[in-house]
Amino acid sequence: MTESEYTSIVFDLDGVLVEGAHTVPSVYRRAAADAVAELGVESVSDEAVVKLGDPDDIELVRNQCERLAIDSDAFWREREAAASAIENEQIRRGHRMLYDDVFALSELEATLGIVSNNRQATVEFVVDWFDLEDRFDAWFGRTDTIEGFERMKPDPHYIDRALEQLDVNPEETLYVGDRESDVEAARKAAIDAAYLRRSHNDTIELTADPDHILSGLDELAALAAKK
């Protein structure tokens, strides 16, 4: 692959297109409390809320749901919906904005997509709220199921789905992310990877080996044709 042959580019969302590296833990904790209340649990300890809201350990969630005598799949759907409602409102109030260099993407001729570990409802909200429908051809977040959560990057599942929907050549596709798990997911999907350095990750020493390291999205103009 030469540096000017990318005909399609797929982007992570949080920390790449939208300010903030991820959904903050307090959102998930509020969402967990809302979800158990919705399922009829009148009182839950702060410790249980932390475990139920932890987005990185699904076994803690299953164990806590069993102790509370609620269905873990039902809880998870409620939790995801509540988290999206909370975060979407924060975005609506201007707490998270697009990075300024996102507007450089309008210069690119490449087919563009989004694949995020964030929830599908928030990905869709971001695309709509910031009027990105005309710039991106497909956008994927995780589904609102436990299975969907377990398929997040570095699993290539959602990247594979995006490539299929976009109907692009993987050999001419670049994935742009801000985490090593993004590089790993791209490798598993058999596409090239670019690691984007922002203020939240500019001092991280990489163990992964991306094809490109970027300091801004405007640098993609050198990797894909302009209009």
TrEMBL record:
Pfam families: HAD_2. InterPro entries: HAD-like_hydrolase_sf (IPR050155), HAD-like_sf (IPR036412), HAD-SF_hydro_IA (IPR006439), HAD_2 (IPR041492), HAD_sf (IPR023214), PGP-like_dom2 (IPR023198). This is HAD family hydrolase. PANTHER family: PHOSPHOGLYCOLATE PHOSPHATASE. The lineage of its organism: Archaea, Methanobacteriati, Methanobacteriota, Stenosarchaea group, Halobacteria. SUPFAM superfamilies: HAD-like. NCBIfam families: HAD-SF-IA-v1. It comes from Natronococcus pandeyae. GO terms for molecular function: phosphoglycolate phosphatase activity. One of its GO terms (biological process) is DNA repair. Keywords: Hydrolase. The keyword Chloroplast does not apply.
